[in-house]
Every structure is written in C-alpha cells, then in structure tokens.
Amino acid sequence: MPLSISRDDLIRTGNFIAGRWTEPTKETFGVRDPADGSLIAEVTDSDGGDAKAAVDAASAALPSWRAATARSRAQVLKRWHALILSNQEDLARLISREQGKPLAEARGEILYAAGYVEWFAEEATRTYGDVIPETVRGRKMLVVKEGVGVVAAITPWNFPAAMMARKLAPALAAGCTVVAKPAEDTPLTSLALAVLAEEAGVPPGVLNIVAASRSRAAEVVDVWLGDSRVRKITFTGSTPVGKHLARESASTLKRLSLELGGNAPFIVFDDADVDAAVDGLMAAKFRNGGQTCVSPNRVFAQREIHDEFVRKLGVRVGALKVGPATDESSQIGPMINRQAVRKITSHIQDAVAQGAKVIAGGVTEVDEESNYVAPTVLSGATSSMLLAAEETFGPVAAVFRFDTEAEVVRSANGTPYGLAAYFYSRDVSRIWRVANAIECGIVGVNEGLISSETAPFGGIKESGYGREGSRRGLDDYMDVKYVCQGGLS
Ligand code: SIN
Questions:
Q1: Which has the closest alpha carbon to 57: 232, 216, 210?
Q2: CA 336 – CA 43 distance, rounded (Å)
Q3: Which stretches in the chain have pLDDT values below 70?
C-alpha cells in the first residue's frame, strides 16, 4: 500500500543537515510496514561522514541560537507546536504505518508530542538563576543557566514523535543545537517533524537529523561519542545500549540522560477497587500493544481478589480487537518486527511450559509471516519464568498471586530496574507506605496512565538517570554558571 497522506512534502527520505534536505542518493535502507513487511520507503543509510557533517552544522549554529533571547526561541517552538497540531492527522498516519500503533493512539501520541513542545516553549522563558546573598561586602554572586551546547538525541521506535519531541523541545528551548538519530524502524515521523520545525523557523543547523539502519547506527553514534563538541547525549532505549553510551562517552565526559528498560510491577491489593484496577491495567499494559517502557511487566494480585481480578481481566483482554494499525477499529496493531514477536512468543511458551494457565490469548500456532500477537493473560506466573526477569514488551499480562504487603514489595523491588510501578489500594496508610517503599522513578497509585509533559519522566537503578518533562526537564540541558563580581563599593 503506498504511503498516502495529505501533505506529500512531509514524506522525506534524506537527511536534514545544516538546513538542507539531502536526496537518498547513496546507500539506503528499507522502512517496512510492521503489519505485512511491505516496503514503505527507502531512507538514506547515513555513515560517519554524515554524522560528522551534522555536528559541524550544529556547532556552527550554536553561538547564534544560544545568544537568541529565550522569548524568541519560545516563539519558534510555539509555531512548531501549532504546526504539529495542524498536521496531526498526517503525522498520526505516518506513525501508524511505520510503527504499527492503532490510529486512535497515534493521534493521541501527536497530542502528547505537541504537549512537550508547548511545555518547553513556555519553560524556555523561566530558566531562572539565583542571586546569592552577599557574604563579603562589595561582592555580587549570581548563578545563571546556559544551554550545554550540541546535544545528540537518539530515539526509540515505540513513540517516534513523542520521544523525539521530548528531547528536541527542551534542548532547543535551552539554547542547545541538536544532532538526532531516529530509530531505524521509524525514521519517517521524525523526518516529518523536522519539516515542520524548519517551517516554524528553526534556523539552519540548529536541528539536524540523520537516519541510519541497524547495522550503520553504531558508526553514526560512535562519531558523536568521540566528538568533544557534542556535550550531551540523550537516549531512550535498552539498558545494554545505555551502558555502552555511558562507557564510551566517558573519554569526553559528556552529560547523559538515559531512559532505559523497565520491569514495572502492577500490584492489586485486597482492599483495591478491582474494576478500577482492571481499567488501569488495560490502559497501562495494552497501550501501544504493550510496547512501552513503563508498561507493567509483572502483575501481582493479592489472594482474596486474585480470582475475580483475573476473570475480569481475561474478559476485557479477550475482547480486544487486533488488526492493522490504520484500521480505525483496531485496538492492538502488529508488533514492530519478527524479533519482537519471537521474544513475546517465547515468553508465553516458557511460562506455559512452567505451569502458567492461559486465561486469554496465548500462542496457538507460530506464523512466521505475521507480526500480530494475541493479547494474552496468564495466571500462575512465578519468578522462575522468563517474563519475570525480562521485559516482554508485548501485550502479555502475567499475573502472580501474593499474600502479604511485605512479600509483594520485596518482589516488586527484586529487579535491577526502577522505572515505573503501579498499585491499587484504598487504604491511605498503605498507599504512602508502599509508595515510599517502591524503588522506581514513577509511581501510579490507583492510576494506569502516568505520562505527562508536566511531570518528571525517568528511572533509577538500571533504568537510567535524568528526567524528561516537567519544570526539571530543562535542567538536564543546561549548565549552571556561578558569576562572582568583586570590587564593588
Ligand atoms: C517510552 O516507552 O519510552 C515512553 C512512554 C511514555 O512516555 O509514556
């Protein structure tokens, strides 16, 4: 099926460097529809030379962008925000085609992405410093904030618009210039966002996007890691890659924001509103087909409500409609690729082989041609199963039964990760006890949807460091400078 949207000029397949679009003349890689593997577009497969050209452009553009007033940067971001909203439908269709997210959710992702741009447009004008009370007469002591410089943004495929916006908007607001590499599966949405950024008046060189295939990605990123002009790397993706970036950026001591893997617990206590907990899990777990880093990976239900919870969950999950992302009625689209399907399938098969019971979905036959996975509920999950230790990243809810609060908090924290956690309870004392005891960066209490541009997003432990969004989000892109002026009378 050809890629058809109302504004053809949003479909770009070359790089955007120094305010110019290149033609995909040299090597290219195919962007494929995850539903059927059909080719959507051939995109430039960038090499180290392209990566360096992007840094050259970002460095050259830095002095004037940094010197621009915060208000003028904010105005550019506000225009970009308006353009993202007015092109919502086209952008959503691009996401659905290349990523497989159902259209209704893709439209929501565009609003979410636009929210970050608007938020940081507003925050740009509020990067206040400090005036330190005089400790010595005749001395003024001030603290000012400055953009860190050239930022390299490396984004994942699961939210191709929102993750790019969440990194670019604060960087641009802070006066940084950017080199960005979108995920190999989903470059088209990012390239379309760059078209709109250009239209909004982002000056040449301030934003540069280079696309690369899986096999070339390391070449591009290595150039950025080794270039001392790149002062910060912001990355959303897997923990092993995050660790690699941390190691390899040490020689130039870059700042890092790493939003990495998770293994979120979702706990339902006996005192919970079970229907609300089922609603919360449906929203948190089955959004984007479970391909979300804050998606619950282990569901814990306390003994007394366990059976009721599992039964109600099974009914809801069994009714989910699976189908092409571009079909308005689909609720679960295809998974991103075969590798993802194989991992999800292996987790279900391993759990069933170890005694888990299939309440909904399951693996009936493995179709090597299809990237669809039946939304699945398993009960009788145990800690020896693969899905207890690894992020499944798919539409599988595995329910563990537990008895006591102490036991479930221990299990919830018994992972190297600490991104998100959710729990349902109506006991106020328990709510604060558990919220304090859970080791993670984000806690949903009686709530399954926790993401918002107004709140800090990020993890602890091996889920990474740094926070995106919220009033803290700009600090990750700014250095603090202390200015001490003496000799004043
Ligand atoms: C992610 O999966 O990395 C982001 C999800 C979100 O922002 O809610």
A1: 210
A2: 18
A3: 1, 365-367
| Cα–ligand 1 centroid distance for 114 (angstroms) | 15
User: How does pLDDT run across 404-418, given as a tens digit for each residue?
Assistant: 999 999 999 999 999
Element (H, E) at 305: helix 303-318
> Residue 341 and residue 406: Cα distance in Å, rounded?
35
Ligand 1 mean position to 108 CA, how many Å?
Answer: 13
CA–CA distance, 484 with 139 (Å, rounded to integer):
7
- Tell me the pLDDT tens digit for each residue of 321-332: 999 998 999 999
Return the pLDDT at 367: 67
What CA–CA distance (Å, rounded) separates 295 from 466? 19
Whether the CB-CB separation of 334 and 100 falls below 8 Å is answered with yes
Position 23 scores a pLDDT of 85
Rg (CA), the chain: 23
Structure tokens at 405: 């609060």
The residue written with tokens 């509920």 in the block is 377
Contacts 24+ apart (CB under 8 A), 250-256: 251/226, 252/225, 252/226, 252/227, 252/228, 254/225, 254/230, 255/148, 255/231, 255/476, 256/232, 256/465, 256/466
The pLDDT value recorded for residue 468 is 98
d(CA 25, CA 331): 38
234 lines ligand 1 (CB under 6 A): no
Residue nearest to atom 3 of ligand 1 (CA): 293
Instruction: Tell me how far the alpha carbon of residue 146 lies from the centroid of ligand 1, in angstroms.
Output: 27
Q: Ligand 1 pocket, 294 CB below 6 A?
A: yes
Pocket test for ligand 1, best of 155, 258, 294, 336 (most atoms within 8 A of CB): 294
Other beta carbons less than 10 A from residue 145's beta carbon? 18
176 is catalytic: no
Q: Side chain identity at 34, as an amino acid letter? A: P
Q: How far is residue 397's CA from residue 378's CA, in Å, rounded to a whole number?
A: 6
Distance CA 391, CA 393 (A): 6
Ligand 1 close to Cβ of residue 159 (< 6 A):
yes
- Quote the pLDDT of residue 330: 96
pLDDT at 102: 97
d(Cα 273, Cα 431) in Å, to the nearest integer?
13
How far apart are alpha carbons 460 and 477 in whole angstroms?
19
Closest residue CA from atom 8 of ligand 1: 451
Q: Which of 159, 239, 468 gets mutated to test ligand 1 (max ligand atoms within 8 A of its CB)?
A: 159
Give the predicted TM-score (pTM) of the model.
0.97
**248 labelled catalytic:** no
Cβ–ligand 1 contact at 44 (below 6 Å): no
